[in-house]
Design a protein that fits this description.
By secondary structure, chain A is an alpha+beta fold. Helices cover 55% and strands 18% of the residues of chain A. In chain B, helix 2 packs parallel to helix 6 and helix 4 crosses helix 6. Classes of the chains: A alpha+beta (200), B alpha+beta (199). At the A-B interface, helix 7 of A face strand 1 and strand 3 of B. Chain B: Pfam families: COMM_domain, COMM_HN.
Chain lengths: 200, 199
């Protein structure tokens, strides 16, 4: 089998090839509307299963066929977005796999419309460890302590809420920093920020 | 091999010869349901009232059947051995046939359920990865250090957990190479010979 760009320059999985005939059983108009539903699902906007059963009822799809058609459309659209395939290449590759021209045109139009949104979503769900969710701060002035009568020192308290990399639950860390240490921290972070800005 | 039934077990099953074969059939169906979905004590009460016996007798009868089925399925005993093992209970021929049918029809599914009861290690659920390049750190600027970050999602029964790992491309290559070697081992003649003999 040929290499396909939308499969990341690998062979097309057998099951995808097999489901082309399932998709062809629908009218091209209905299949385009199904694509719209699948894209909504990929973007976490919620898929309307009632609409899906209405769309597939003409073609007399059983529940296995419905699941298969959603799965194959999900795969094609997300994999094409993943590998940044342009609409024309996708069109020619799908036709090579046997998807009729009208169906291919409909699918690629939906893909083109939502191409950036799909990639943005995929970027969002890419692996991130320990996401920083919130930062809160407070400046205190210590007047006195049990060790020293006149302390007279400002400190900053930082409350960091971050996601635990392994459990995905939110963890809170509180740190107290003296003025000197904080100055160092700030300088270093500003250097990192300059570097990040240079890369964007 | 023959099943050896304990005296208590024989006693519990003895109740079955005192009722209609149709009732035994029903108990058999209940026993299989309980094996699949867990037991429901209320059923015992209902059946006991209808048959005018103690709910304890019904419970013993059903549980006796459940145990008979699980032990037979576990050991995968042959038809002949099952019939011989059941002979000792002194049931009618009709009842023996009924029990045999119950065993043969449900054996495969019961074995599947029993298979899930073995202790298991957490297994693969999903793998997310990310390729980064470290350009600078507090200690050193102007670097080019590629790293691969992996999040391995594991599943152990109902529990999900995740492990975060990080490696450089060279170690990743080595890891891939070792895993490919492990896969290739399956195709070696030694392994093939063993698999053939087990099947």
């Amino acid at each position: 089998m040929d290499r396909f760009r939308f499969c990341g320059d690998l062979d097309c999985p057998d099951w995808v090839l097999a489901e082309m005939s399932t998709l062809a059983r629908m009218s091209s108009v209905k299949m385009k509307l199904l694509c719209v539903q699948v894209i909504k699902d990929l973007l976490d906007e919620g898929i309307d299963y009632d609409k899906v059963s209405k769309l597939t009822s003409d073609a007399k799809f059983e529940s296995g066929d419905i699941k298969a058609s959603i799965a194959v459309l999900s795969f094609i659209l997300s994999s094409a977005a993943k590998h940044d395939v342009d609409s024309d290449s996708l069109s020619s590759e799908l036709q090579q796999l046997g998807l009729p021209k009208e169906h291919t045109t409909g699918l690629c139009k939906s893909y083109e419309d939502k191409h950036s949104a799909l990639q943005e979503k995929l970027r969002e769900i890419s692996l991130r460890l320990g996401r920083l969710e919130a930062v809160n701060w407070r400046v205190d002035y210590t007047l006195s302590s049990s060790e020293l009568k006149q302390v007279n020192e400002p400190t900053v308290q930082l409350k960091l809420q971050a996601q635990d990399p392994e459990t995905d639950s939110t963890q809170t860390t509180v740190v107290t920093i003296t003025a000197d240490k904080f100055r160092v921290l700030l300088t270093e972070l500003k250097q990192a920020q300059t570097m990040m800005n240079a890369l964007q | 091999m023959l099943l050896v039934l304990s005296e208590e077990h024989k006693e519990h099953l003895g109740f079955l010869s005192e009722v209609d074969p149709a009732v035994v059939g029903e108990f058999g169906r209940i026993a299989v349901e309980f094996l699949k979905k867990g037991s429901n004590p209320k059923i015992y009460e209902g059946a006991a009232r209808k048959l005018n016996v103690s709910s304890e007798s019904v419970q013993h009868g059903v549980e006796g059947l459940m145990y008979l089925l699980t032990e037979s399925s576990k050991l995968m005993i042959s038809e002949v051995d099952f019939q011989d093992s059941v002979l000792v209970l002194g049931f009618s021929e009709e009842l023996n046939q009924l029990l045999l049918q119950l065993y043969l029809e449900n054996r495969k599914e019961i074995r599947q359920i029993l298979g899930k009861l073995a202790p298991s290690l957490p297994h693969y659920h999903n793998l997310e990865w990310r390729l980064d390049v470290q350009l600078a750190s507090r200690a050193l600027r102007h670097q080019v250090k590629p790293t691969v970050t992996l999040k391995l999602h594991l599943e152990d029964g109902a529990k999900r957990s995740a492990r975060v790992l990080q490696t450089d491309p060279a170690t990743l290559q080595h890891l891939i190479h070792e895993l490919e070697r492990a896969l290739a081992e399956l195709k070696s003649s030694h392994c093939r010979r063993i698999l053939r003999n087990i099947k």
